[in-house]
Amino acid sequence: MAMEGYRGFLGLLVSALLVGFLSVIFTLIWVLHYREGLGWDGTALEFNWHPVLVVTGFVFIQGIAIIVYRLPWTWKCSKLLMKSIHAGLNAVAAILAIISLVAVFDFHNARNIPNMYSLHSWVGLTAVILYILQLLLGFFVFLLPWAPLSLRALLMPIHVYSGLLIFGTVIATVLMGVTEKLIFALKNPAYSTFPPEGVFTNTLGLLILVFGALIFWIVTRPQWKRPKEPNSVLLQPNGGAPEEMEGSMAMNFGNMDKSDSELNSEAAARKRNITLDEAGQRSTM
């Protein structure tokens, strides 16, 4: 099936991938060039893993996982395969987000810096917890064949809405974190004097914001939604579709009504015959 507005979709998709990839590259340049690199020794080098893993996993990979159903060249693939890819990408993003939190807490504890006092930390931890719950819910309800179809139909709108809400929350949390880090780190020259690192990292924030906007636009266009599979009609135990089931039941009820009316008419005719016979016998007598 051809996608409506395929060229527009392809242009936005390429733009989103390019901007998301640039966001990851800009983050690496930021920590490697301006923040002295990466490490895992309880110093600021360990903290630098936090923005790298968050932007790579929680922003870029999660964005790809959100739009993976919209790729038209995957529409011929089975829905189970696409569900597995969607869940796998989200699982990778969740693992990277958890490692990024470990890096932050380890750095804070090594430097005796208080944990969980800023709005950035509150919103960020909430987003990670909700993301893990969303991943588990999707795995047990939509990927495994245990949940009844009625439960899936009930939870699907909630699953889609909460996924977009979490993604938007992550974008906002990243922007708060970038600003907070620059305010703490840039003292001489100050952040307010437009130093090169401040300008570069502000550009990184804009790239992340544009990436999120492109993902939201792609995933909310109804004409780019994956079409339903022909065999996705909910089947009843006898193999018939609900519409067929209702039609057959209606026909059966119609036949039952018809047979009942025929029986009633036959009984009435017999009654009339019996009455006529009795009247004839009386008249003869």
Automatic annotation (TrEMBL):
GO terms for molecular function: metal ion binding; transmembrane ascorbate ferrireductase activity. Pfam families: Cytochrom_B561 (PF03188). Homodimer. This is Plasma membrane ascorbate-dependent reductase CYBRD1. It is an enzyme of class 7 (translocase). Its main location: membrane. It comes from Balaenoptera acutorostrata. The chain crosses the membrane at residues 12-32, 52-73, 85-105, 125-146, 158-179, 199-219. The gene is LOC103012694.
